[in-house]
Amino acid sequence: MKTATLRMTALVLALSLGACLRAETPKTGDKAPDFDAKDQDGKTWKLSALAGKQVVLLYFYPKDDTPGCTTEACEFRDAYDVFRDRGAEVLGVSPDDVSSHEKFKTKYSLPFTLLADPEHKVAESYGVWGERKFAGKKYMGIIRSTFVIDEDGNVARAMLGIKPAGHAAEVLEALPA
Question: Does any domain span residue 55?
Fold first, then answer.
C-alpha cells in the first residue's frame, strides 16, 4: 500500500514539474529555435528555410477568432504591406489546428501565414507555453509573445507578455525603416 502511494505521489510530482518546466525563452542575440509546422493550407513551414532570406516576425497568440487575438491579427493585417516593404514575413502561431486557421484567415482576410501548433512544441521551444490565469482559474496556454528574427536566424528582439491592441505598431517600431 505504501509503495503504491509513493509511486502515485512521485507520478503527480513528475507531472507537476513537467507542466511547470519549459524551454528558456530565447533572448536578443540567441539563435532562434528551428521548427516545422503546418500552415492553414497544410503546407509545412521550417524556420531555417527562411534563414538568409528575410526577417521573420513570429507572433504567438492563444486562440483563433477570440477578441484579443482577432484585434492583434487584424492589426498585423492592416500593417502587412509596411511589414513586407521592410522585408519582414509575418507568421502567427497558436495551438489551433489547420482547419481553424483556414477559417480564421479567410474570415478576416489575413494575408499572412498561420501555423498550427496543437501539441505546443513550437511554443514550448520558445518558452511561451506556460501557466496562465483567467477568471481565477489556472491553466496551461500561450503566453502572448512576438519574436523578431533577423535574416541570420537570430533573435533581434523578444517581446513577451504583450497586449494585443497596438502591438503591430510596436513591432513596426522594432524594424528598420
Answer: yes
